[in-house]
Every structure is written in structure tokens, then in C-alpha cells.
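for the recovery benchmark. C-alpha cells below, seq after
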């Protein structure tokens, strides 16, 4: 008779945890190797796109910039990512395939991650070409031992040591790149970014703090909230004495902004959200306030049942034709798949060119940002309008992608013709 064997004791939690960590570490190495291989394939795809676009049958000039744009658009639509992300991937893949092969090899064996790679490339490209090889060798040695934030600081210090141009001269050149950007967020919020000189940024923050601390002692807002409210008030043209107003009047400036408001919401009979052009839904109370009291906004009213556009708010600003107004609301922005450029920043393009018998009608017109307008005319990307407001794009590789309208309703008859 066989004697039953006692069950093996469960491994200690410490040993089990170590085993799981070994698996996680192995998977991370495999992920990094896959990312390096993906970069190799992207570089190979770029070379193939160059062969397609430069083929004599295309009857186009062999322009590297348009080849790059065509490939970035192909990647963006294939991976369903923003074109900036695809462009970044294409740029990095090309650099890793030509100038920074050691960095790609380090990614392939897993000694560094993709965040290290991007920080290394970003920093290296601010150095003159002769110093980049020396920078790469030193930076890779540091990256293998550091987290990405620590490596970012180390890479900046290394860059300063190797850069042959004086910091004063570089700062003067960098100042020309200052700009402002608005990034939408959830719940009627947005990030407002200022890319400015570090000293001016520090001075602004200190000034906002000083103004915020002047608020009455019974003010329920936090210091951070008061700092933001002060900045908003001043940017909208209020005086420093009134800068602590948490809801400043928006009429001090007159930007071109469109707010779409359902009629019943405007009348106070419904709480259906409105929409702020480029940023998305806004609550009913905000929509009513903007539509009724803010001269800086174009008011666009929609029918409560059909959603048809009843008014373009012509009393607030110089208004384009009914057709152009309809197209702006229908498209919302550039009609290339995934593009986020708003209609106000885009061209109205004849899908079928005017010189090739294209009509000036809503079925042959669409907004394209300048980048995608040129992509349509100078690369193998082709476009066709469908009857339901959708637009069909065919890539140089033959892949088909659909662009949906932001809003769709057949326009009034007098808006459908030239």
C-alpha cells in the first residue's frame, strides 16, 4: 500500500514575489526589444514610401518632405494615433536607423527604455552634429543606470558641457520659439500653456502668488485657485486691483470663438449641454451665459428636434457665406482622419479640383488644414466625398480610411449651391 505524500509547502511570499518580478522584468525586456524592432520596420516602411512616391508613374517631384508627410499620415491612420505621434515615431525610427544605431541596439537588448531613447534624441538634436556621437556614448552609459527623470537631468548637464555655442546666444535663438497653446480637458476644463523664457515664467508665477495673497481673509478659495483666477483676470484685460474676481467678464477681449447652444437650453427650458468650438461640451448654464452676455462669442442655435442650424449669429462678427458657415459646423475641423486642427484654422478645399470640373457645393467642399491640403495635392493620398457627410481617404498603400463629420444635417437649399 502506497503511503500518501504530504503536500509540498507553499512557497514563501518573498520567493513568490521574486518570481513574479522576474517575469515582469523579462516582459519589459521583450517589450523593449519589440519596440526596437518596430522602429526598424518603420524605417523600412519609410524607404518603401520613398520608392512609391518617387516612381515615374506618380509624375511628382521626389520631395523628401512630402514623402515624410505621406508616411506619417500612413502610420497615423494605421495605428490610430495622432499624426504628431506618428511623425515623432517616424523621426525617431529614421534617426535610430541612421545616426543613433547604438541607441537602438541598447533598446533592443533592454538596457534602456523608450523614454530614455526619446530624451536622448531630443537632447542630442540640440547639439551640433560633430558632438552628437560623443554625447550618445556618454548618455547611454548614464541612461542604463538611471530612471528617465534622473536621466533627463543628467542629459541636460552633459549637453551643457559639450555644447560649443554660448548659452546667451542659444537663449536668444530659443526665444524665437515662444508661443501659447490651449489643450482641452474633461469637464469643461482646459490647460493653457505658455512656452516662454524661464525667467519670465518665474516672475509671472511670483506675481500671481503676490496678487492671490491679497484676497480677503474670508475668501473660500485656495491660494492655487486664486493664483489661476488672478492670471485669467489679467489676461482678459482686467486691472490688477480686480484680479481676484473668480468669474471675470469675458467681454474685455474679442476673440473669434463659436458656441453652439440648443434653442431650448438658451430659453432655460432644457439643460442639454452646448458645445464650445474646439473644446467640446459645456454645461447648460455656461452655454446660456456665453450666448447671452459675451460679445466675444459667435452664437449658433440648433433646432430642438432636428439639430438643424438655425442661426450663425451674424450680429457679432463678420460672417462668411451660408455655405461656408454650414461647412464649418458640419466639419468642425480638418477632415483628414485623426487631425485635430479646427475649421477656423483650415482651408475650404474642393475635393474634386475646380480646374477639373469640381463644383462649389457642400458635396465637393471640406475643410483641410494647410498640412493635409498640401498632402492631398502633392502625395499619393486620394480623397472622395460620400453622400452622408463622410469622406473617404485612400492612402498610398491602398488602405481606406473614413472621416466622420462632427455634425451632419443636410444644409438649406440656398446653402448647397455655389
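predicted aa per position
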Amino acid at each position: 500500500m502506497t503511503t500518501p505524500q504530504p503536500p509540498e509547502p507553499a512557497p514563501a511570499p518573498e520567493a513568490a514575489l521574486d518570481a513574479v518580478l522576474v517575469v515582469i522584468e523579462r516582459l519589459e525586456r521583450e517589450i523593449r526589444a519589440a519596440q526596437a524592432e518596430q522602429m526598424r520596420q518603420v524605417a523600412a516602411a519609410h524607404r518603401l514610401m520613398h520608392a512609391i512616391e518617387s516612381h515615374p508613374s506618380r509624375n511628382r517631384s521626389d520631395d523628401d518632405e512630402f514623402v515624410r508627410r505621406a508616411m506619417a499620415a500612413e502610420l497615423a491612420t494605421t495605428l490610430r494615433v495622432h499624426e504628431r505621434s506618428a511623425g515623432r515615431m517616424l523621426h525617431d525610427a529614421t534617426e535610430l536607423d541612421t545616426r543613433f544605431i547604438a541607441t537602438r541596439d541598447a533598446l533592443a537588448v533592454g538596457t534602456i527604455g523608450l523614454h530614455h531613447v526619446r530624451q536622448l534624441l531630443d537632447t542630442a538634436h540640440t547639439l551640433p552634429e560633430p558632438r552628437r556621437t560623443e554625447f550618445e556614448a556618454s548618455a547611454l552609459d548614464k541612461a542604463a543606470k538611471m530612471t528617465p527623470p534622473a536621466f533627463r537631468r543628467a542629459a541636460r548637464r552633459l549637453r551643457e558641457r559639450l555644447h560649443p555655442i554660448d548659452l546667451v546666444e542659444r537663449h536668444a535663438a530659443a526665444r524665437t520659439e515662444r508661443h501659447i497653446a490651449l489643450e482641452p480637458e474633461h469637464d469643461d476644463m482646459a490647460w493653457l500653456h505658455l512656452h516662454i523664457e524661464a525667467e519670465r515664467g518665474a516672475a509671472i508665477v511670483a506675481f500671481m502668488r503676490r496678487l492671490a495673497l491679497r484676497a480677503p481673509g474670508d475668501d473660500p478659495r485656495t491660494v492655487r485657485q486664486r493664483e489661476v483666477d488672478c492670471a485669467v483676470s489679467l489676461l482678459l484685460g482686467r486691472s490688477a486691483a480686480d484680479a481676484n474676481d473668480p468669474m471675470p467678464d469675458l467681454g474685455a477681449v474679442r476673440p473669434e470663438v463659436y458656441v453652439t447652444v440648443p434653442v431650448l437650453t438658451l430659453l432655460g427650458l432644457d439643460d442639454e449641454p452646448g458645445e464650445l468650438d474646439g473644446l467640446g461640451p459645456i454645461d447648460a448654464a455656461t452655454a446660456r451665459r456665453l450666448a447671452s452676455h459675451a460679445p466675444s462669442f459667435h452664437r449658433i442655435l440648433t433646432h430642438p428636434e432636428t439639430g438643424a442650424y438655425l442661426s450663425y449669429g451674424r450680429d457679432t462678427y463678420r460672417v462668411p457665406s451660408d455655405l461656408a458657415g454650414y461647412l464649418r459646423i458640419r466639419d468642425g475641423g480638418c477632415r483628414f482622419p485623426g487631425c485635430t486642427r479646427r475649421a477656423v484654422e483650415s482651408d475650404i478645399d474642393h475635393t474634386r479640383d475646380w480646374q477639373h470640373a469640381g463644383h462649389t457645393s457642400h458635396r465637393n467642399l471640406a475643410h483641410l488644414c494647410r498640412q493635409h491640403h498640401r498632402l492631398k495635392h502633392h502625395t499619393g493620398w486620394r480623397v472622395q466625398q460620400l453622400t452622408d457627410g463622410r469622406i473617404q481617404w485612400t492612402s498610398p498603400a491602398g488602405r481606406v480610411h473614413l472621416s466622420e463629420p462632427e455634425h451632419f444635417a443636410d444644409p438649406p437649399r440656398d446653402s448647397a449651391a455655389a
